[in-house]
Fold these 3 entries.
Entry 1:
Amino acid sequence: TVQADGIGIGSASFTASNDDYVDCGDAVSGISDYPFSVTGWFKAGASTDGMLFAINDESVSSLDYKLLLRASSGEGNLRLTAREPSSNGGSGGDAETSPNTANEFNDNEWHHFGAVFTNNTSRTLYVDGVNRASNTTDIDFIAATDSFVIGANNDNNTTNKEFQGNIAQVGLWSKALTQ
């Protein structure tokens, strides 16, 4: 379960293969409402999209919180998402960085991320200690989440968007962390 001071996951190298991710199981069971935060470090040089983390409902598609490194077209930017499918009466809210230069975050350098989900209208993405993106789309707390995966997405109990690179010191916190 998640405590007020968080839980931590060590370090891993990912090759973007179908079975190369860390499944933390129902580690999100200690989070029953906003706020919560996910922090960690990543290093990537790949030119393919990859998920840093995903908190999903294993039985429904597009019901999730996640952080994606978008690299497939040389963007190298990050997209923080809270999404509830329209079939559940919801929508999606993305907080996406705009890279200052091409391949900004897939540069083979270590970067720190802080994904802060403060409430249903506040998501903020910090990268290297700087507020890089936010979103205020109204997304009710997704109580059905039952999967926390590092290095891939677990959409409808199917993994995809496997990460290529290194991810370290991932922490899940049951509070809104500050910059």
Entry 2:
Amino acid sequence: GGFVRHLHPGAALAALPMVVVAPLCDRGTEWAAPGMCERVHRLVDVALETFNVASKPFVTGNSMGGLGSYMLVVRDPDPLRWAGAIPVCGGGHPVFAKLAAGVSFWFFHAASDKVVAVEDTDKLVEALRQAGAAEVRYTRYAEAPDPHVEDYCEGHNAWDEAWARTPALWKWVESLVQKKRAPRTSE
């Protein structure tokens, strides 16, 4: 689901030059659990080195992964290593916002979300703006289509709108990648 679903052959995003690392939380845990973010930081480091990636990475996720994308930035010893973060319907803890100063974010969430309260994202966006995040964009939909999974997910699918129907998102990502290209190391 979410972002990865739009990478299949023939999809609009399939032609973009990128390395995608798509970890999932262990069953029965979440991104706030001790060690989860550190494991993903190491995984990203290995991917960047293995594929000799010249740009800073982006992090994104939806629902629990939306929270995880925010947590990966604020729990990173060097949050400025991230070109940006795109949390989708994940909320987050505003108390950590000062740790993300200097990072660019684009949040997506729907007011109709019955799984994660949109007010959680509202508060986080405001906290990041006050803490000095480099840029904070927020697309707050009135309604999002159901993800057609179960009734308990009513209004939670902001990711299809974000990934499939927001072309400005890809221009934003490209502009940040160009601005924040990491220096290439030669061996």
Entry 3:
Amino acid sequence: AEAEGSCLVPATRADRAALMRRVRRRRTADEDRIISPAPGIYARWAHWRSLKPPQRALGIIRGLAALHPDWVFCGPSAALVRGISVSWASLRRTHVVCGPRDGKRLAARIVRHQIEPGDVEVVSGVRVTSLARTAFYCMRDASFPDALAVADSVLRLSGMSRGALRRLLRRSFSGHRGIARTLATCDWADPRAENGGESVARAIMIERGVALPAIQVRLADPLEEDGWFRIDFTWLGEDGRPVAGELDGLVKYVDPAFMGGLDLMAVISGERRREARITAYDMRVARFSLGEVENEASFWRWVRLYGIPFGPPPERRHGVPVRALAGGWSPSCGAGEMSLGGWRLEYQVVVA
């Protein structure tokens, strides 16, 4: 079960009884301790505590899917299975579409939804709601930053354009509560955001009136003929000098999937060389964490320190920022060219 990223579903009643006896033992060494994250599924505590919230949530979903083959997972649970970026807070509960009789035996952290599941698809062996229904039910009640993370990742994973996503959601959910808010969020979506953290950071910038950056700008490595690298966010500073914004996260230093088989020191050394080569373009490198962006005081200190252009916060409609502002200013740097250490770089912001 651990190898498959799932909680254990016991094969026999005897196995379940043995597991429950282990669960009830109060004085057990951590390496021998067994827990039950949801009724009928089990995990070793030593393994469980090593997992991040998304891995735990996915383990519960896969275990429940094996235990209840007729269940359809929806909302953030379906999004997680599909690889859509959702907030960790939304993963504290598991969302399912199941019959009314099942509701009598659901745990407190399993939420039963009485909705039509629509088109059911099987993704990685788990029955989930359609992409459109999953996206809509995740976006309609989420904050703008969390909803934008969903929209960005839907475009990135599906290959759809922003217009195609809008048409799909309008056609499928016209008249539903929250559809206007969901469509307004789609107007800001950009598939180039590589992860949910970048989407959330960009959304906060939009909400506070910071000029919309060019995303994932590709630069040639000035020292290696065929080398290149990407920058998370790029602005033309108020003084005309480009600013490279790099979102720092621990994942690139601790998750093997992001480390390319290198050890920690090699990853750190590579980051230093990369940053040194970015500065060869006469760019200022502005590193920041998601926590620094979310904290308004530290956010504005960072913006002013690096001369990132900004204007008044945009108006909101349905709780979502809009582009039309008094004075004609809008949070976007449009399209154009940057002069980088003798190189000319063309860039374009997808959101007009």
